[in-house]
Design goal:
mainly alpha; two-stranded antiparallel sheet; 6 helices; about 65% helix
């Protein structure tokens, strides 16, 4: 599992570096034919990490409930996310993985009910959920790459 956590953190750091040259306005822009923006995708990664690892296990989430509910699948972007909040998301993006690793190593995820994601991927244990995050992050990195081409 060490490699999975390392990959999650490195991928998220690369994502942050990839969007570093964009303005707050560009990060908030929703291009034609898209229903979200770059900042929504960033915060969504945080939200999903918490939902599939902590909420599914019946554990409290270590992030603000506002991030979880405002960026859950099916939500729409907030009207405008300011620079301070975006910087907070960038910090939390990797911090949640570090916290997840610590909690995983402490054995907190004993109660993980099986479920199937919207993508049809069956997750039976916490390790499945952590590996799913790698796939999910890659999917959203691709969306962010497409969005950057349109707003950059």
């Amino acid at each position: 599992m060490e490699k999975a956590f390392e990959s999650l953190i490195k991928g998220r750091l690369q994502l942050i570096a990839y969007i570093q040259d964009l303005s707050t306005e560009q990060l908030n822009q929703i291009p034609d034919r898209f229903n979200n923006n770059i900042v929504w995708n960033l915060a969504h990664l945080i939200s999903v990490t918490q939902a599939i690892c902590y909420k599914r296990a019946g554990l409290p989430t270590p992030i603000e409930e506002e991030i979880l509910t405002n960026y859950f699948p099916g939500t729409t972007p907030q009207p405008f996310v300011n620079t301070k909040q975006i910087e907070h998301f960038k910090l939390v993006l990797t911090d949640v993985v570090k916290e997840l690793k610590k909690d995983y190593e402490a054995g907190l995820f004993n109660n993980n009910p099986s479920w199937t994601t919207r993508s049809g991927i069956e997750l039976n244990k916490i390790e499945d959920s952590i590996h799913f995050l790698l796939w999910h992050d890659g999917l959203h990195f691709g969306v962010i790459m497409a969005l950057k081409k349109l707003v950059g």
